[in-house]
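Could you please review the protein record set out just below?
***
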Amino acid sequence: MAGKLKSIFISVAISLSFFLSYATPLEYQTLLLTSLPKPAQTLSWSTQQESEHETGLEIETSLSLDLHHVDNFSPAFNSSPQSLFNLRLRRDAIRVKALSTRAAARPRTNVTRRARDFSSSIISGLAQGSGEYFTRLGVGTPPRYVYMVLDTGSDVVWLQCSPCRKCYTQSDAVFNPTKSTSFSRLPCASPLCRRLDSPGCNKGKNCLYQVSYGDGSFTDGEFSTETLTFRRNRVKNVALGCGHDNEGLFVGAAGLLGLGRGKLSFPVQAGRRFGGKFSYCLVDRSSSSKPSSLLFGESAVARKAVFTPLLTNPKLDTFYYVGLNGISVGGVRVAGITASLFKLDAIGNGGVIVDSGTSVTRLTRPAYVALRNAFRGGASSLKRSPDFSLFDTCFDLSGKTEVRVPTVVLHFTGADVSLPASNYLIPVDSDGKFCFAFAATMSGLSIIGNIQQQGYRVVFDLAGNRVGFAPKGCA
């Protein structure tokens, strides 16, 4: 009897808490409704930078890049908007699974193996086109310009190289290291080779690398150093993989520029030159043909950014972990969403990461259910619509040009990030169907995705051990 009374008391307490949370008026903002369009029909790359490479100057303190969404570069480019969006969600699901698998994996020890007999514990979420954004940069001397995927969820920089044992089709000619005066193979005993999770060594005592991805795709070849050219700025001696066997994905790009936090990522390798700072601003690929931007150096730190400390995972150094303490809907803290749901424990389980290549923010299931229910309560005046893919909270907004929706604020440690309405209620077709752009994950790892980051300049300050968010930072 006592147990039954206790259960009734808890149920009443939860109901009373929910009622009191919404006894005061909620905060709302206006969402201007747009359908789901196709991506831009042309890319705005400037060829001037490629024709002027001979006058390039070595970089001193900063550099910048344009970023484009991968859907502009996809074989499914001419598909319907709905098909492209479904493709994006499929890529997202594979990436989330791979990131969660890596976060849950046990740390590996470095073991040097013989030629062709080595492996790596590097597992990224790249799949079916890899990261969501890509850019164009020069490789070698003189620079050969190629498309490269950018990814904050992986570290190793690599590109396809001739001779190819097996290479996928890319838009530009495969890089030929024999035509570059700055290409240099790394010896097995070099410190850079030892930074690989599991370095290999060929008969010539040159370093070998291999990177495996969540869907079984991989790249392997020689680990080398080369010069990279960003616009007219050159960065020398960047350690990268020169891949001779590359199988499975990547949709036309030549390779990948790893922006993770690990010791072989580009930001860490070039950290001294740029003060350990970089930032990006992601323009919504479905509403603008303008490119996004990536900055390195002091200019990357936006003045209006609010910062939250970076947390350290003792078993994994790649991801950007932050502390998430709660979420507000309509100006009211959602009951049940506390810091304990997102805690990164002493052995590296759980936590929250900020990731450029995941689209939809994933939250641990208890947090997501509480957030979803709070949003449904605040949006009860909107006409509900059936579920769509991974989204279980959708609305039929056909015939409307704008609607009022409750505000959503992410409360990080020391930084409150108020999301624009378009960052959490998004079109999923061209017929007025909009869905709440969060999802649950059964793993302990939560991920802040790029839909929620759009329009913000997201600052990664490795020197200051912090991540910042600046609203309207794309200008």
User: Anything to note?
Assistant: DSSP finds eight helices and 32 strands in the chain. The radius of gyration is 23 Å. The mean pLDDT is 82.
